[in-house]
Amino acid sequence: MTRVTVKTTINHRKYELAPDPNQTLLDILREELGLTGTKRGCEIGQCGACTVLIDGRAANSCLVLAPQIDGKEILTVEGLASDGRLHPLQESFMDHDAVHCGFCTPGMLMSAKDLLDHAPHPSEEEIRVGISGNLCRCTGYVQIVDAIHDAAERLGKKERIEN
Amino acid sequence: MPHPHTIIGKPARRVDALGKVTGTAKFAEDYSVAHQLFGKVLRATQPHARILRIDTLKAAQLDGVEAVLTADDIPGEKAFGIVIKNQAILALDRVRYLGDGVALVAARTKEIAERASALIEVEYDPLSVVSDPEEALKPDAPKIHGDDNTFVHHKVRKGDITKGFAEADFIIERRFKTQFVEHSYIEPEAVLAEPLEHGGVRITGSVQNLFSSRRSVAAALTLDLNKVQIIQSTLGGSFGGKDEVMTSMCCRAALLAMRTGKPVKMVNTREESFLESYKRHPYVMEYRWGGKNDGSITAMEIRCIADGGAYASMSPFVTWRSAVQATGPYYCENVKTDVYAVYTNNNYTGAMRGFGSPQVNFAIESMMDELAERVGKDPLEIRLQNGFERGALTATGQRLNHTVSLKEVLTRAAHEIGFQEKWSRYRNAPDGAKKRGIGIACSYRGVSLGAEGADAAGAIVSVQTDGSVIVSAGITDMGQGAQTQMSQIAAEVLGISMDRVQFLNTNTSGVPDSGPTVASRGTIMGGSAAKNAAETVRVSLIAAASEMTGLPADTLDLREDYLVDASTGERLSTFSELAAECFRQGKPLYGFGWHKSPKTSWHDEEGRGEAYFTFVYGANIAEVEVDTETGKVDVIDFVSAHDVGKAINRNTVLGQFYGGAAMGLGYGLLEEFEIEDARPKQLNFDEYLLPTSMDVPRIHPIIVENEDAAGPYGAKSVGEPTNEIAAPAVVNAIFNATGKRVFELPANLERVLLGHALRRTSDRGAVLKDSANDAESCKTRRSRE
Ligand code: FES
Ligand code: FES
Questions:
Q1: ipTM of this complex > 0.90?
Q2: Domain A6-79 falls in which CATH fold?
Q3: Residue B708: DSSP 8-state
Q4: Domain ranges of chain A
Q5: Confidence (pTM)
Q6: Which of B131, B268, B389, B742 is the one with CA 20 to 30 A from A58?
Q7: Could you tell me which of A73, A58, A72 has the C-alpha nearest to residue A110?
């Protein structure tokens, strides 16, 4: 297969890659770049374990083909913390015990980040809709919903302090 | 020196949480090493057939292929099994279900491995298939192993049911059916097997029960146990599901690694996982109860048939628990219970959270509501009337000599949601498109393995010279928080903060064989072992402290990272300084703890015994809204009350409450792995429906704590009880709403609306599945009018 050239930014770092055009973003992250924080659960866009942000919006990386990331900005769970400080979502997930086995966690965090970036004060219903594409077999979602609520509050506070 | 707990009972962050939120936690598929090969399994294309010929030549010749193996290449034992060794690592001369492996390939890339496996030629001679457990019981059914498909029969006998039925004012007879359920751990199975420098093999992977998998690998490869090292990677969920399926993956990857001399990585796709992995047992259950008009029960006759699928796996144990608990926590003098497991050509069935209880609880708790209906009582009343109290004699003849909190959990759950008022209001509500209902269910559950097997576990606590601590144990963490609980216990005993503790993932070469992490034995067994280990180290530390300070040992205490004089509270040194002092004095800073459970007993022939050393009690209440036009059921409220003995970590206990209820709701309403003529219908999450965040309601947890002498700090277990009564609570709620009872799980749209399941055919459209209880449910409806 002829390889394609793809220029992309992943976790704030620029890459020029030459993947097979039928390679998925999930494969590129895990196999080529060693970013194994993004998980493989079903490979058909059903479980959400592979969720990353593409230009700020949550997407199932198992459904995204290499040429589609050309010129895009990608954020994975490895890029969530910045300047050595955890993202409030990461803190709140730990505090609320929203992390059990942790396999859904990277995808959940990315979906939750998309949600909070676009709806800083979500209702419980909005949170539930926001993570409805992410399956979790362990938690029953209760603590995850609580953690996202809490993160929204922490982010709100942070904003107030910064302004 | 007793002082209030500083860590036990508090919500501590999980010891493994940070890696999991930053993406550094390593799950099985995240392990890769240089020059690794990719292993691939060629699976059966026939559910039941003799293998006439396997030709691997073309596959072996493909560029990039380093090995192609069949059963002939296994040097040692070719089959494994915890009770009956009949599960082949690779099919010998016959395949028995579609998940059977026939040949293995190791190649330089995944793609080459896939291409190679497609080049292997297998010639089959198809045999007739049996896919229905009741068919499998018939004399002329195709035989799966030997000449009898029935491979388990457990019985429980108490009193005399003939007498019991004679005393009854009426008899209620019902038939219930449950489905196959996929564990649905979100992480598919994966391992990395590496040949070791001094012989043998190291396997890193998503293995739940490391020691039994190790035994099988060693036997297959004719290696000593010390030459097989299995290290558990961070496990992305298991729920009982990563046992035998992982044993066969470990054996296969190890075979390829030993043959090629190179590391071999194997990963199942989700489709392969669905196809091969074992499921929760489907049961057919016939319940016959004799009742009195006052609501008491004079006799119970119970017959259950479990579909064991193609291999024995854990069926003998799973069905034993069903037999012991088949009557529920209710007084009855005369009991006759028979539970059978039979082979079919379906996916084999084994351990899954609940372990034989969710099935019988669905039947028992439905029966209890039918009894209430018959005598004109409400569901809470009937349970309080018949439920066990301290000193009760169970169906197996065991006297309950601990705090029997059944009535406490029932009444607290009912009070939380206003059960009785809602129940009678909904029952008398006028017809409408949407109808509400509320249902209750309760259970008792034997803790740990019970008379199923030897029950002991070990843990190691080792204090470093700088005062940091390493804890390791044979009990594994699957995401339930076992590591955190054991770390908390060690920290409590040593009087240190949690951030000093590092937990190591289980390594079979580093800790003693502690049996399987099943049966909710993690806390009680692993926790007790960790406590013993930490106490050993504490003795050393205090002795060193006494020498150092000149104070008698019994006035010294360890608290909040300090050595203190307990009489004055004065801080004498930091924990770190004390650790260094201990090292200087040559005192050991290493503690090994072992915990063996109290004795249990079982008499197979007489069908009775002291089945478990203690029990837990729980009650669930579900409130639902039923759309009477579509059959859709929404769970709008849920109460979960469980006596956990003592919550070591409040957060992880709550996590088990929520996660258990969600899985139970999936069991009750959504999940069904359908197999028709031995061919599975769902192979991924597009068709196999798991509860999403939109399906699981807010759950009101009620943690009841009656400390039990059998567990560390009084803790018992929580993982499984929380999962075993959600489904019957929902089904009873549907009855309260609609007056129609669902006798088959899951209570999906068609079962709720039509009273039976629809079946997909290859030529589209749907056909009816026969339902034995149609007539019954009509009758019930009539009697309510
Ligand atoms: S792996 Fe992409 S959605 Fe499941
Ligand atoms: S924490 Fe295990 S799947 Fe979500």
A1: yes
A2: Ubiquitin-like (UB roll) (3.10.20)
A3: -
A4: 6-79, 88-162
A5: 0.93
A6: B268
A7: A58
